[in-house]
Amino acid sequence: MKIQRIIFSFIAIGILTSCAVTSNRSVLVNKGTLVGIQDINSSDKGPIVLKKIVAADWATERAGLINLKDPKAVAAGLQSGKEPIQIYFYVMDHPKFGRYVVDTGLADVFRKDKKEWPVSGIVASQMNLGELKIHTTIKEWLQKEPKKVEGIFLTHLHLDHIFGTQDFPAGTSVYTGQNEPGDTRFLHLFVQGSTDKILGSDTLLSELNFLGKEGAPIKFLDFFGDQSLYVVSVPGHTEGSIAFLIKSTNGVQLITGDTCHTSWGWLNNVTPGGFTKDLERNKVSLDLLQAVAAKFPKIQIHPGHQSISPSAK
Ligand SMILES: [Zn+2]
């Protein structure tokens, strides 16, 4: 009995201590200026040239993407099943500070046989990766667009947002939200190995510090300090999820990350479902993004895995 109890304790400790999303090293970095929602520049345009690139078409379980138990989803008759989605990455060119990328699309290795993919077979089948239809890889894109990438922002560390990381030159700065690398979830027991392999073991993660002078969390980080790019702290989908409010030459744009995966989710203000860690905190963060969007009538919204057609508003 005693031995069984000891063994059980070891297993329990193992589960509790080994389920961070990644074992990569991370450091907390202070960048830009922390501001409140009332301080956000109200202009409709800015200096950043933003490009959205479709890396792949894909499909995954609707119950993960949308909370089907939400009364609005029930009323709309949404059912579980496969939902067509896409994987994106975004390129931001700032005239003074250079090129930054949000999320990473897919690495070139995903053009090869599945056996060579840096994900375990279980993860690949659970994620329905067999249905990926790749449009472009980061390697292919970098060959066409050789301009230096100053930094990569990861909206969060779920695999489908980091799949392309290894195609960027080693040493490129990689930014995440605060506490994202240490995000713990039982599920991570099965994905941590794949996450580490995809990020590359040498990749140091820079966590953006969202704590204000008094130690209270602040929601908006004016990254360049010129009011052109606000990184938004939106915990819930994961511990350190981030979103981006961008003053672009084409107007104000909001990249939500997976705080909202789908067009329907954004237009109805309904959170994701099973893919989210904490639905209540995700809802608070989604409400914050809706409040920001309401300040800009012409804003373009980019949910995590679908695009909203201009006529849908
Ligand atoms: Zn996600």
TrEMBL record:
The coiled-coil regions, if any, are none
In this record, what's one Pfam family? Lactamase_B
Task: List, separated by semicolons, the cofactors it needs.
Answer: Zn(2+)
Q: Record keywords: Hydrolase included?
A: yes
Sequence ranges assigned to domain Metallo-beta-lactamase in this UniProt record: 86-305
Please provide, alphabetically and separated by semicolons, the GO molecular function terms listed in this UniProt record. Answer: hydrolase activity; metal ion binding
Q: Which InterPro entries match?
A: MBL_superfamily_lactonases (IPR051013), Metallo-B-lactamas (IPR001279), RibonucZ/Hydroxyglut_hydro (IPR036866)
* Keyword Zinc on entry: yes
Give the UniProt keywords, A-Z. Answer: Hydrolase, Metal-binding, Zinc
Q: Gene3D superfamilies under this entry? A: Ribonuclease Z/Hydroxyacylglutathione hydrolase-like
The domain of life is Bacteria
What is the similarity comment for this entry? Belongs to the metallo-beta-lactamase superfamily.
Please name the PANTHER family in this protein's record.
102 KBASES UNSTABLE REGION: FROM 1 TO 119443, QUORUM-QUENCHING LACTONASE YTNP-RELATED-RELATED
Record's protein name: MBL fold metallo-hydrolase
Q: From which source organism is this entry?
A: Leptospira dzoumogneensis
